[in-house]
Description:
Distance between the termini of chain A: 38 Å
Shape of chain A: globular
Helix content of chain B: under 10%
Oligomer: heterodimer
Largest sheet of chain B: 7 strands, mixed
Amino acid sequence: DAKTTQPTSMDCAEGRAANLPCNHSTISGNEYVYWYRQIHSQGPQYIIHGLKNNETNEMASLIITEDRKSSTLILPHATLRDTAVYYCIVRGPYNTDKLIFGTGTRLQVFP
Amino acid sequence: NAGVTQTPKFRILKIGQSMTLQCTQDMNHNYMYWYRQDPGMGLKLIYYSVGAGITDKGEVPNGYNVSRSTTEDFPLRLELAAPSQTSVYFCASSSATGQSEKLFFGSGTQLSVL
């Protein structure tokens, strides 16, 4: 599975959009991009995933570049409760043993 | 639905003791996983199961054992606890019915081995 590169930490003002980047330059054609987050010491929480097209749900939007080598998770109106570690993961279909979490991006939302 | 339930939430073991971390899910998911997370690090996969009676090793299986006798339960066994097993343990499940799957995690078990 492709490796991902994320910034170690980011800050965002409450109410502003938080844009979290992820590089996955070695991604292959059938690999999905997943985003999870972990608030404090809770279990990770699924946010969104995509293959080629941009995706949006009630939590966030996922923008994947045309060459699929990078993506951005967008939290449109960050709140203090969005302070968490965000993990970008790339994995192929039916590949159950390779959901690999790196160290992620620590997002701090400030008032 | 309760989702994925882990017990206990906290436990302190002495070196050489054994224990079982319990995990149960009520979503009828066929896939279940055990991860460990050391301080400041990401999650590492210990074992996983694709259905009752089927288990396989992940990245860091040494020192652990699992079983999957039912769809709902996936216990993790530590036979001879060592300080290196001090960590937070997360159980997860997924349905994996299509080409993509999303994992649902439990709230974790914080284990200290002294």
